[in-house]
Amino acid sequence: MHYPRILIIDDHPLVLDATLGALRRAYPDADVIVAQVSQEALEKAQSLKPDVAIVDLSMPRSIGEKPQAETGLQLLKDLMQGNNCLNIVVQSADPRPLIRLKSLINDHEGGFTIADKQLSSEAMLRQVELALQGLSVTSREMRIGLEMKADWLTLLQFAFVEGLTDSAISERMNVAERTVRHYWTKIQDALEVYPEKGKNIRIQTEMRAREMGLLD
Predict the structure, then answer these.
(1) In a shared domain, residues 162 and 94
(2) Averaged over 136-161, what is the pLDDT?
(3) CA–CA distance, 216 with 204 (Å, rounded to integer)
(4) Of 39, 87, 94, 96, whose CB is crowded by the most CB atoms within 10 A?
(5) Which of 99, 125, 143 is the last residue of a domain?
(6) Who contacts 166 (Cβ-Cβ below 8 Å, separation ≥6)?
(7) What is the pTM of this model?
(8) What are the DSSP E strand ranges found in the chain?
């Protein structure tokens, strides 16, 4: 069994302790790593290869510096460019600055979710689990004006018109099957379709795509 390696990046002691406690209760066998400044976070992400990084959006670059959203955005950019498959959870009471990384986030192949700092630890853990599954769950501001890329529309046709499997779709589109899965999570985020207990997410995706006129 694979136990996740989790990197928590946060400089606020109270938030850090709460996040650490919740994660250790939910994932008692996980390898949990902590970084409190941007430089340390990048070094640990590169050397330790975590399965998921939980990132405070407002971070200091180094010890003694003031936490800033701009530093957190640059850290996210560096993390995504350094590992396009890294699963990421952003913790923030105000995720609006993420709109500046919209294109990069849309192209990121790892899971990417947002956990509101004002919500419960259970809600935060839900976002961690979704990110570990490689899913995207972003804010409404991130989705406004989001266009369905040509490859995404092609995938919908192959899946719901021709009835192809992901493996067959990857062959027809000449991309890796991992890329097909990446397309699925981006499509589902654009359509605001997320996992619900007892519901088949692919069927929900098809229903929503037809409602939006993306399929005949």
Answers:
(1) no
(2) 83
(3) 16
(4) 87
(5) 143
(6) 177, 180, 181, 184
(7) 0.78
(8) 5-9, 31-35, 52-56, 87-92, 112-116, 136-137
